[in-house]
Design a protein that fits this description.
This protein is mainly alpha-helical. Helices cover 66% and strands 0% of the residues. Helix 4 crosses helix 5. The longest helix has 28 residues. It is elongated and about 60 Å long.
Length: 224
């Protein structure tokens, strides 16, 4: 008697797998189509699912885009931070690794920049996107605060105010990244890295008086 051919059983994808597929499809649509990619119909087609399934897993289109935003932002942050976590390196060298990772070719991908433009355009009128922006920016700033804090502890820089220093460095990094993405022929990634290195060198040399931590006054002074 011939053996019957065994047919593999159909396995339904788990809710988590479906969510990840929808998030991935959203990011692919945004990369390919820009702002026009924010379409539930287009996202569902890219993911190979019905529009109803999107509504089942996410409360709204804005909710799906918000999750995609947070997923991408945290993924990029983890990738950049990983290149600065060489425990054998000095705090100053870790910052250099962070700068190089921040201007790596995959970060300067024009399609990736298109995705960020969509996210930023939605911040003003979407509370969900605004909340994600605030959370992810806070986490990004905390990474810089950690790196700068280790630099301060090492004694390579004078005592400085950690939070405003991280805000200033973040603004420099973001500004250079935006300009490189908009006008890649104006300057090179290595020049952007050099400018960030110069900023940290200036911090180490006390070049930013407003960032320097004030020394506590001796008791009894300034009370007359």
């Amino acid at each position: 008697m011939a053996n019957k051919r065994r047919v593999p059983k159909f396995r339904r994808a788990t809710p988590e797998v479906r969510r990840e597929a929808l998030i991935d499809a959203t990011l692919r649509c945004l990369k390919r189509y820009g702002h026009a990619g924010v379409s539930v119909r287009r996202i569902s087609a890219a993911a190979g699912v019905s529009i109803g399934l999107i509504n089942h897993h996410f409360p709204s289109k804005s909710g799906l885009v918000a999750v995609a935003y947070e997923t991408l932002a945290l993924s990029l942050q983890d990738s950049i931070r990983a290149q600065a976590e060489n425990r054998a390196a000095s705090p100053r060298a870790r910052l250099s690794g962070f700068f190089r990772a921040s201007f790596a070719p995959e970060i300067l991908d024009p399609e990736l920049f298109n995705v960020w433009l969509v996210f930023w355009s939605m911040v003003a009128h979407s509370p969900e996107i605004r909340a994600v922006h605030d959370r992810t920016y806070g986490k990004y700033r905390s990474i810089l605060e950690s790196l700068l804090g280790k630099l301060a502890i090492s004694g390579e820089a004078p005592k400085f105010k950690l939070r405003p220093a991280a805000i200033a460095l973040s603004a420099l990094l973001d500004g250079l990244w935006v300009e490189l993405s908009l006008s890649p022929t104006t300057f090179k990634a290595r020049e952007a890295i050099a400018l960030c290195e110069d900023w940290v060198n200036g911090l180490c040399n006390g070049a930013f008086p407003r960032l320097l931590a004030r020394r506590a006054q001796p008791v009894g002074r300034g009370l007359n």
